[in-house]
From TrEMBL:
It comes from the Eukaryota. CDD domains: HP_PGM_like. Residues 398-442 are annotated as: Disordered. Residues 420-429 have a biased composition (Basic and acidic residues). InterPro entries: His_Pase_superF_clade-1, PGM-Related. Substrate binds at residues 69-76. The keyword Glycoprotein does not apply. The chain crosses the membrane at residues 12-31. SMART domains: PGAM (SM00855). Keywords: Membrane, Transmembrane, Transmembrane helix. Pfam families: His_Phos_1. It comes from Nitzschia inconspicua. This is Histidine phosphatase superfamily protein. Signal peptide: none annotated.
Length: 442
């Protein structure tokens, strides 16, 4: 203490020691907090699933969400029409009107089945029916016409209809001009998810607005004060929007998205609420009452061929070594890419098995497959010698009907659903009902 000052003066060494102790205690407290956070993180999923507020919110979600693609339009029947008529004004054909009416009858049949299976699902409306329906429709002419024709079959269930611009078709520009062919070729190189049309949108732009609509409108549809809750939502939209609903729901990667085929006219995806699933949107595709998305992806496959192999074509095979075997590269179309559980791009053993099943005449043994590379890609892998590519087999496509969807008998659980607008090469089959939703992304 300084004489007459009343203040204590500590030696510098003691001040340093006290600072070191305080610093050490701070670090220990920080590490303890991080340790508690790690422990909490492992149990957070279980805690969230048991949260009463979240469970009540999940319970209030609509029991069914039906995604319906519009019926056949003038643009589907005449592909040159896009050059002269605005996309939003393209109407249905006579065949399209008939398709829409039949789609409405199909939807009503699904609702009737649900009425019988879930008689206690809610208060009955004035018509004595359990299901109350809210229609969301893209404001394009062909989707509005599809909705008007389809709803005749279940008009007594509809409580309201909402035009929704966020689920409209991708904007390809004000008109599909004479440069459209060149733009489509560029799109094939860049990928439909990423390519942005001049004065138009990229697929990623459409994905963002579709996800916004899903989170802000669908998941809160029964949360709005003053509005009657609904049991089902019928969404009349476009093929791309339908795929993006599934993409955000099942966390598809862009590669998986590119593998999924466009839905056909009036194709119907039925999302059924399953409270055993985690998350804020516990929906699963109904494989009994709805259609299922189909998928395929092109892969470069390096095949080992032996000199005594009668199936080897000398005109398309180049020797890769001065041994008794040769190698060729084939571009094959892997059907049912969604059968592969995520992360799909590293499941080489399963991919090899599936390729061997689909191309038995070209692949006799899994050991014949030396390597696999996925397409779409901008360039062939550096490890591939372009001189070895079997030009006659590009693309070698097995046109035999393939089972569409997931094969739970192989994977043990349902992988995620996994497009480009491929022409149909396979028939649609039903998926096992015991599959469960996955959360991986590839």
């Amino acid at each position: 203490m300084s004489p007459g000052s009343g203040h204590v003066t500590l030696p510098p060494s003691l001040i340093v020691a006290i600072g070191s102790v305080i610093g050490s205690l701070t670090i220990l407290l920080f590490l303890e907090k991080k340790s508690q956070q790690r422990c909490t993180k492992h149990s957070s999923t279980s805690s969230r699933n048991n949260d009463p507020f979240l469970q009540d919110k999940r319970q209030r979600l609509p029991s069914l969400i039906l995604l319906l693609r519009h019926a056949e339009s003038e643009g589907n029947a005449d592909h040159t029409l896009w050059r002269t008529k605005p996309d939003n004004l393209i109407s249905l054909t006579e065949k399209g009107y008939k398709e829409a009416i039949e789609a409405g009858k199909r939807i009503e049949t699904i609702f009737q089945i649900y009425d019988k299976q879930h008689p206690e699902s809610g208060d009955r409306n004035s018509a004595g029916k359990t299901l109350r329906v809210h229609i969301h429709v893209s404001p394009f002419e062909r989707t509005l016409q599809t909705a008007r024709a389809a709803r005749q079959a279940f008009e007594h269930r509809v409580v309201r209809t909402s035009p929704e611009s966020r689920i409209r078709e991708q904007e390809f520009g004000n008109f599909s001009l004479k440069d459209s062919l060149e733009q489509r070729q560029e799109q094939q190189q860049v990928g439909r998810f990423w390519y942005r049309f001049p004065t138009g949108e990229s697929g990623a732009d459409v994905y963002d607005r579709v996800k916004s609509w899903w989170c802000e409108s669908v998941l809160t549809i029964n949360e709005r004060i003053g509005y009657e809750p609904v049991d089902a939502v019928v969404v009349v939209t476009h093929s791309l929007s339908m795929r993006f609903v599934l993409m955000q729901l099942y966390n598809w990667s862009p590669l998986t998205f590119h593998s999924v085929w466009a839905a056909q006219s009036c194709e119907l995806y039925v999302l059924r609420k399953d409270m055993s699933l985690p998350g804020i949107d516990p929906y699963v595709l109904d494989d009994v009452h709805g259609d299922m998305p189909r998928s395929s992806i092109d892969v470069y496959v390096r095949l080992r061929k032996y000199e005594n192999d009668d199936t080897t074509d000398d005109s398309t095979t180049s020797s890769s070594a001065t041994s008794s075997s040769t190698s060729i590269i084939k571009l094959l179309r892997l059907h049912n890419y969604l059968n592969i559980p995520p992360p799909r791009t590293i499941q080489f053993d399963l991919i090899k098995e599936q390729l061997m099943e689909q191309y038995p005449h070209e692949i006799q043994s899994i050991d014949d497959i030396e390597s696999i590379s996925f397409k779409p890609i901008m360039h062939m892998p550096e490890s591939f010698d372009t001189a070895l590519v079997d030009k006659d087999s590009t693309i070698s496509v097995n046109n035999q009907p393939q089972k569409s969807g997931f094969d739970c008998n192989k994977t043990g659980s349902r992988s995620q659903l996994g497009g480009e607008n491929h022409e149909p090469l396979e028939k649609s089959f039903r998926w096992p009902r015991t599959c469960t939703k996955s959360s991986s992304t590839t």
